From TrEMBL:
This is Alpha,alpha-trehalose-phosphate synthase. One of its GO terms (molecular function) is trehalose-phosphatase activity. It comes from the Bacteria. Belongs to the glycosyltransferase 20 family. Gene3D superfamilies: Glycogen Phosphorylase B (3.40.50.2000), HAD superfamily/HAD-like (3.40.50.1000), Trehalose-6-phosphate phosphatase related protein, domain 2 (3.30.70.1020). InterPro entries: Glyco_trans_20, HAD-like_sf, HAD-SF_hydro_IIB, HAD_sf, Trehalose_OtsA, Trehalose_PPase. It catalyses: D-glucose 6-phosphate + UDP-alpha-D-glucose = alpha,alpha-trehalose 6-phosphate + UDP + H(+). One of its GO terms (biological process) is trehalose biosynthetic process. Pathway: Glycan biosynthesis; trehalose biosynthesis.
Amino acid sequence: MSKTIIISNRLPLQLQIDNKTIKATPSVGGLATGMKSVHRDSNGIWIGWTGLTEEEIPADLRDEVVEATIQEQCVPVSLTEEDIEGFYYGFSNRTIWPLFHYFMEYTEFEKESWQSYVTVNQKYAEVVLDNIEEGDTIWVHDYQLMLLPALIKKERPDVQIGFFLHIPFPSYEVFRTLPWREEILKGLLGSDLIGFHTYDYQRHFLSSVSRILRNEVSFNEITLKDRIVTVNSYPMGIDYNKFSEAAAKHDAAKNQSELQRRLDLHIDSTPDAKMILSIDRLDYSKGIANRIRAYEYFLEKYPEFKEKVRLVMLAVPSRSNVPQYQLLKKEVDELVGRINGKFASVSWTPIWYFYRSMPFENLIDLYTTCEVALLTPIRDGMNLVAKEYVATRTDKKGVLILSEMAGAAQEMSEALIINPNNFEEIADALKQAIEMPEAEQIKRNKFLQKRLKRYNVEKWANDFMTSLRDTAHKSDIVKAIRMRTDQEDEMFETYKKADKRILFLDYDGTLRGFVNNPEDASPDDDLIELVRTIHNQDNTEVVIISGRDRHTLGTWWQDVPITLIAEHGVWKRPVGGEWAVTENLKNDWMDTVRPILEQFVDRTAGTFIEEKNYSLAWHYRNADPDLGEKRASELSNVLKELSANNELGVLDGNKVLEIKDSTIHKGKAVTKHIFGKDYSFKFAIGDDWTDEYMFQDLPDDAFTIKVGLQKTAAKYYVDDTDRVRDLLKKFATT
Ligand SMILES: O=P(O)(O)OC[C@H]1O[C@H](O[C@H]2O[C@H](CO)[C@@H](O)[C@H](O)[C@H]2O)[C@H](O)[C@@H](O)[C@@H]1O
Ligand SMILES: O=c1ccn([C@@H]2O[C@H](COP(=O)(O)OP(=O)(O)O)[C@@H](O)[C@H]2O)c(=O)[nH]1
């Protein structure tokens, strides 16, 4: 039976050695708590790190470790102290975490930790590959494992791989600073589906892919040479019923409240003071220090609330080997001390501060007892605490104040949304929350709860998995038109038997890959020799048919006596002959069009004009991809209006718009060339829209092949120029 394999750095359970035995506690953090509910209800396995390094586990406890993980349907990945130092405390949490949360000043670029990240991702890959069975689906989680999808795909192209990023994906301007940006993107693109919490993270990612890797991106799909990767946003939900039911139970036993007991014990004797809750891992991205300062500002701005409110702050220890986290701990300790010292009275402590993690029951106690939740991350992928707080408000009373920088804010507009850097706004939101009429609280929470209940963690996971399975259909479509070996064999059989054969070969993007400067794309010796060999075979004709100007083509192929067709059919050099125009064409329109193209060149950095005898081409391969596409469609529209009166055509090539006489195109050129001749084998290969004319106009028995995965009228497609070379080699030896 096929299964789902979840992979994340941290397993849902953390192992510790207590009195020479293995003790398991639940992991904290949104990923583990959220995915736990998904895993619990599946028949799959979860692969990850136990929290203990190889060195920490004595030989006699190794079986116990395996036993403890198996019980939870988990498989451990064994990591050394050195791995954890370089991979977890190093690259994951000193490079990626700060960079992706826009803390560039905290970001370290260390080659050693990058190498450790690569090594550990490989270790994960080995364990995953050992556990994959046919039909399994893979779901990789988070920033610690961004190389894993490609490592798995390389060995197991047959399995569907999903990846979900739980933290923000930053803007291209930030991401581009990473020295290993290409490796990270290529690692992620091993997936079939990549999910983010919000549309903003999704578009940042797509923009980085198209700018850095220059892959074709259309809407939410990235076209690779042999696959399509789908990218979408799926805001993670919570196990709503677990939280609301636990809260209802807790409400029913009111006297069980720890906080209440604390008040009863007269640790603090202002029982009517409103409780303001704050819960996070102690992480600089969570804005904890700013939150305390904003609270101080609030008490100063609205002194009437002294002794009427209390900030209950739970900070969960996290990544304490990283210096920034140690500094933050010190800063928070000092701030809490200073503010309590500044405002406290005999009967009132303004901040109750807990530095530890709490078991589920105590969390529920905090959630249900506090009238206000104040969550002010500077950046946060989602923030599940915000959702959990709302889910536990069984009587629908309570107010959530939430930073607009948390992914959750996008779905929780009924909360009081604040900018975490704006103390004025936070202070006012606190006042508004404390004074908010109950009816309004209920109204807001009603909407929030309805949404959270509907789009819970189960729905989120199902949506993701359904989309992942859908990507399998896309792969099937791709497979259907990709030239198979048997189809290739059949083609070469026809070639062998044919008594008169012709091959139309497009040049750029087909015989030769694209380069930034088109003049640098001259044919290599190997290619020249291959073409010559095919041409020298009996009854075989090779035609290079290109949009290039005749001088360039003529110079490159001067020693090979094949037919050349230049400028999409304007010029032809027959075997052993001289260049001649094929039609009577005008070029007086160029003086009108050139200034328009020049305007576009001036406004669009990286673009240039190529001037041929009967056409003008505007190249935008080196422009910013988005801007290039936008300007190309703008220019296309301008030219279409102009062309209506001038019989001009606009050819939409691969990152080039070519303006020429509308009656000229490769389809017409090939039709004219074969007219009246009885070729028993016809072959055409090309990569862009200008080649579609040949695919459409050649007779049905022609073998037409598109290079690269795109919509096409050709019968087959092959992945890239390397595959084209393979085909040429076969023609040469058949
Ligand atoms: O494993 P740790 O280093 O102890 O860190 C705990 C987890 O923190 C991060 O959580 C994120 O995931 C949440 C759920 O999607 C999201 O709400 C939150 O905004 C994120 O910060 C981290 O992404 C996990 O990998 C860590 O395990
Ligand atoms: O003592 C604690 C405090 C918090 N949490 C859980 O930790 C998660 C925090 O997730 P969030 O998305 O808010 O932030 P993250 O820590 O993942 O960045 C929530 O599910 C909390 O219920 C926990 O298990 N124990």
